[in-house]
Amino acid sequence: MLRMRRFIIRYSPGLGVAAVLFASACDNASGTPPRSFLHPINHEPLGVFDVPLDGTTVPSSITVAGWAADDRGIREVRVFVDGHPAALAGFNLVRPDVSAAHPRARHGTDLHGWQTSVQLGLPGRHTIDVRVTDTNGITVNLGTRVVTVEPDESGHARDVR
Q1: Are 45 and 132 in contact (CB under 8 A)?
Q2: pLDDT on residue 17
Q3: Structure pTM?
């Protein structure tokens, strides 16, 4: 039995999609026909972590916001404070600018913006990370911000609204 396998990578600029074509053929007495299938390559999710800005002084409870999009869809946006899970952000902001810039990630909606509230806790420096995961499980870090919660006169976290 002779087996042949080949992989062909094709890119279609009009569609903006790369694909891998896998073909397998058997030359045997049964005359099994070749099989093939098209497997689109999954792109990493993209987005921006907009708020808060790096190096700013913030209250102990803050809003974290930005946007995310993906060719297949977004499963979740997670916010971490000092390396620990702090919040799961929901898509609750309409962002037609994101749909215009990334039309293949539109999926029938302009709801690409996310925001959530997080508690930073004690006064001092805190690191905020935002990670987005697409529906295929690919996770990327949208960014890291270091912010400072300053104490008030009594040494407690100041509410700097």
Answers
A1: yes
A2: 43
A3: 0.70
Residue 57: partners with Cβ closer than 8 Å, 6 or more residues away: 147, 148, 149, 150, 160
Q: How many CB atoms lie within 10 A of CB 17?
A: 15
At residue 120, the 3 state secondary structure works out as: coil
23-63: pLDDT as tens digits:
344 444 544 444 433 345 778 999 999 999 999 999 999 99
Name the CATH code of domain 46-149 (choices 2.60.120.260, 2.60.40.10, 2.120.10.30, 3.20.20.10): 2.60.40.10
Name every residue whose Cβ is closer than 8 Å to that of residue 99 and which is 6 or more positions away in sequence.
105, 106, 109, 110, 112
User: What stretches of the chain show up as alpha helix (H) in DSSP?
Assistant: 96-101
| CB of 114 closer than 8 Å to CB of 23 | no
Q: Contact at 8 Å (CB) between 116 and 22?
A: no
